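Data deposition worksheet. Section B asks for the primary sequence of the deposited chain exactly as it was used as input, without tags or linkers unless they were present during the calculation. Section C holds the resulting structure in token form. Section D is free text for depositor observations; keep each observation to a single sentence. Incomplete worksheets are returned to the depositor.
Section A, Depositor: J.P.
Section B:
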Amino acid sequence: MKNCLWCGEELQLLADESNIKRLNTTIGSAFPKDHKKSSGLEHDFGFYKCSKCNLRQICSSSKLEELGCVNALIRYHEPTFHHEDLAIRIISLLGNKSTYNIYSLSPKDNDLAKALKTIIEVRFNGKFGDCTSVASADIILATRQLEHINSKRKIEELFNHSNPGCLLVVEALDFHYLSNKGVHSYLWEERLSYFSINYISKFAESRDFSVMDKHEYFDYKEPFWTLIMRKSEVAVEGKKEDFNDHLIETKPTLIENSKLRLVSACKYYLAINHNHIFVFIGIGHKALSAALYVKTIFKASMIRLYDSAEVKVGSTWNDIAIRHINAVIGDICPSDNALYTFSFSGSNAENIKQEILVKDTQAKFSYIEEWYN
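Section C:
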């Protein structure tokens, strides 16, 4: 029996028209280069909903407590335009102190931590310290990572064992807003929990946090939200039971809709790509998820992967080597008639397309966003 990471109740296997219930793959954010170690970076995963709170979840067999940024060398291009304002709001809620201890859940917190430290030093003439325990933190950062937690113990540590008076800062994509707009690129097998701002607010309140500040950024290309919550000095009786008994997550078809969209795109591209050769140029979780579903639907498909980042080139995913983007043209056979999918646009992509057409005159092209939107 599988249980909800959040409320602890039994999970139910999701059923939808795609009939894809469980999959197996290399963990996409690992980019392993050591083949001897890569076997420990595989996982099975399935799609579930909580029988109690209705939260849609992906359950992974991985023993890792956190997914989403397994390879710490990978640089994630998350938005930073709001960091200075967010950092000021965080500090204003802490009051005057000479030293602030910051706990970061993942490398995705680095940019916000940098903004915080700059403001603490320059504007408040204070000092900062990095700590390795939530119990000694004044500020806990969990930006773009809470949804990747694969351990109830880790969730309990963040919410139950944090220091009274500390601030917990959460940032996440607005999955509900994206789904309503027909944008389904949020689906990722390492993104395990598809919660709303209301869900996290209510869960935190049930663990003796108070919501001090919340912002929703709808104008950004991938809308997201932030929450700043303070751990209460005194526990409030009945809050945990109230959460478990009354919270029902809204927009229940987040995973089903996104999965059906991706499956539909895969079937379309398989139909127009008669040689079933798929070339992905620029490798992130969207490209790898698309490649995984293509192979699941039609196992004989040939997948080629290319990127320019040193940390990715030379690594493997499902026994497929990720080669340097400069090798794309040299790997082409005139008879490929392949589908080339780009994760980027602009002049660089257009130049590569023109070079491809010289050798593969029947080539077809797409952008990875078209697989999801």
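Section D:
The mean pLDDT is 90.
The CA atoms of residues 144 and 172 lie 5 Å apart.
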